Amino acid sequence: MASQEILREEPSRGSFVNDPKVRSLFFQAVVVVLLVAGVWWIAQNVIANLTRLHIASGFGFLKGRAGFDISESAIAYSSDSTYGRAIVVGLINTIIVAVVGIITATIIGFIIGIGRLSQNWLIRKICTVYVEVFRNIPPLLVIFFWYSGVLAVLPPPRDSINLPFSSFLNQRGFYFPRAVWGDGSWLIFVALLVGIAMAWFVARKAHQRQMATGQQFPVFWTSAALIVGLPLLAYALSGFPLSFDYPKQSTFNLTGGFQVSPEFLSLYLALSCYTAAFIAEIVRAGIRGVSKGQTEAAAALGLRSGSILRLVVVPQAMRIVIPPLTSQYLNLTKNSSLAIAIGYPDLTATAGTVLNQTGQAVEGVLIMMAVYLILSLVTSAVMNVVNARMALVER
Amino acid sequence: MKHIAIGILGAATLGVMASSASASTLDDVKAKGFIQCGVSTGLAGFSAPDDKGDWQGIDADFCRAVAAAVFGDASKVKFTPLSAKERFTALQSGEIDILSRNTTWTINRDTALGLNFIGVTYYDGQGFMINAKKLPGVNSALQLSGAAVCVQSGTTTELNLADYFKSNKMEYNPVVFEKLEEVNAAYDAGRCDVYTTDQSGLYGIRLTLAAPADHVVLPEIISKEPLGPAVRQGDDQWYHIVKWTYFALLQAEELGITKANVEEMKASDSPEIKRVLGQEADTKIGTDLGVSNDWVVNIVKAVGNYGELFERNVGSGSPLKIARGINALWTKGGLQYAPPIR
């Protein structure tokens, strides 16, 4: 590629060699060629060596029968399913723990971060201790703390701890009644959606009215009534179609109901607590980054301290908070691969088992790398959209 | 200029990575002066470090036997503890020279994984262990429907387990860990009702539990688990050395050659014993294999014959007290049989 360019530009040789633009293009082209050649060479090497060692290669193994079971799966899976499906089951488990972990870590992180700036000495100190403790312990240790230190010492299934609403807690996990939706229960979901839509509409109208006339409207209570009341009304109208499947004691375990495994619980709690400590610091930095004059000006307008935080400080702080928050979300997703230490069937665990049963290490590792890369890029893309919406619009 | 420098640096790094072409394993082993042996992360009777940190067990001693055959010195072995998931990659990549790690011989591992199993050093079968104190009524594996079962990931055990429960139309909840110690800890803590692995392993693991007497191994054996050492494909000489080390152990037992009497046996009148011990005039058996002619003497001096190896590590001389059973020599009704050394 590069040599062709040189040939074409031959006539103006004297000035061309010293042209920084051309030189830069030339060197970039050289690097690209070297890079492509290098990657191609590695790939050839891998293929040649695999053939020499009589090791199967290619991605055809994904269609083979897996033959092993997975303890928790959000989609239908049995030992008759394919290796490919086993990897997808692991991927979904990773996404589940990452999503609920991110939500919980964000909530805890905001509470702790704001708590560190509290006027109250005790709250401030408690939040500082939380951040310092969790930020300075490796995440794997936090996972082991929850798994071996907290959940493993719970009583065996026969002596489960009874919790309200027919829920149970024992060393095999957390069990609670599972809702069984009967005929006509679709009405309830429709009512819920309608309720949310109406609440949004009311909030918008109220905002417009406040802008125009200065009059306020009790948005919170109206929305709550709409979102809770409408589904309840639908529930009554459709003839109470909801029933519950309660956990029951059987020979070995509690059966029925909805079971949350201790592996998931400890991973989820550990990732949330650990990442929340970092998020708290980011939130604190974000709030500190908003000029004190903003708070004083808002106070001078007669806003209460809660409203100052909600309307003036936090929206400005978010602009500082979101970019570093993205990298914490990525960290949490990647840290979820530590699940392997406690046996939660995440992507690393199931893909690792597939890799071992088929012996196709190169393909297995490539799949894992590609999937984590895509997960991270998607998270980044979503956060970039959020960031763009939050960013200061300059006039 | 910066770009070029980075490009060249990158290319150089890749060049170094790719230049690990392999000569013969025997030459490599002789050049580095020891055999790198892949073992388990700790399974009593097969490969586990003792209180001095020395690896003990059938699998560990087998590697010592190969070292004795190659170097005449059983101490020239270095052990690499591997999880079930790591073991094949370690062998394929050349990190270890022998995989001697209670590994089941299957056709898939011989073909698609590019391994060569050299034989069966221990005939085993998969079993179940339960805590009889917590589950008093259970005395058969067929009563285990609904149980939580602890199992190590990436093993044939994991696959047999799925097959067994499926074919008997029973439900179970797999609790899967990567490392043996993690499975042991989870079972001991009560995370699962049942522990499943090779039956010999269950007896070994039972000794390490908090209250060994509370646990019983159920009678059912649900699979064939022929355990043996494996080497990489594509190096017949190394494959033969490791394979015939195993046969030499069996042959020594069959001929009554022991650690104690091997020196006397050299002067034996029996032509067969003389031949096996390399005492025949102008013998080429050892050198043809690529080792010295007194290789069998070295092996037996170092670790004893197969029977001694067995009794010391898992049999009457060990806390496991496993009977020879089908692991007896063919002359005593077992399956252990060596082709003639001649």
TrEMBL record, chain A:
- A Pfam family (short name) is BPD_transp_1
Source organism's superkingdom?
Bacteria
Q: Where do the TM regions start and end? A: 25-43, 87-112, 133-154, 184-203, 224-244, 264-287, 308-326, 365-386
Give the membrane topology: Multi-pass membrane protein
Q: Which GO terms describe its biological process?
A: amino acid transport
Q: What is its main location?
A: membrane
- Which GO molecular function entries does the Swiss-Prot or TrEMBL record give? transmembrane transporter activity
Give GO cellular component annotations, separated by semicolons.
ATP-binding cassette (ABC) transporter complex
Q: Which residues form a coiled coil?
A: none
Family designation = Belongs to the binding-protein-dependent transport system permease family. HisMQ subfamily.
Name recorded for this polypeptide: Amino-acid transporter subunit membrane component of ABC superfamily
User: What is the originating organism of this protein?
Assistant: Mesorhizobium metallidurans STM 2683
As recorded in Swiss-Prot or TrEMBL, the protein's gene is named aapQ
From TrEMBL, chain B:
Question: Could you name the domain of life of the organism this protein comes from?
Answer: Bacteria
What positions does the domain Solute-binding protein family 3/N-terminal occupy? Answer: 34-265
Alphabetized, the UniProt keywords read:
Signal, Transport
GO biological process terms held by the UniProt record: amino acid transport
Which InterPro entries has this protein been placed in? Bact_solute-bind_prot3, Solute-binding_3/MltF_N
Q: Which residues form a coiled coil?
A: none
Q: Does the keyword Chaperone apply?
A: no
Spell out the SMART domains in the cross-references.
PBPb
Q: Which residues form the signal peptide?
A: 1-23
Family stated for the protein in its record: Belongs to the bacterial solute-binding protein 3 family.
Name this protein carries in UniProt: Amino-acid transporter subunit periplasmic-binding component of ABC superfamily
Lineage at the top is: Bacteria, Pseudomonadati, Pseudomonadota, Alphaproteobacteria, Hyphomicrobiales
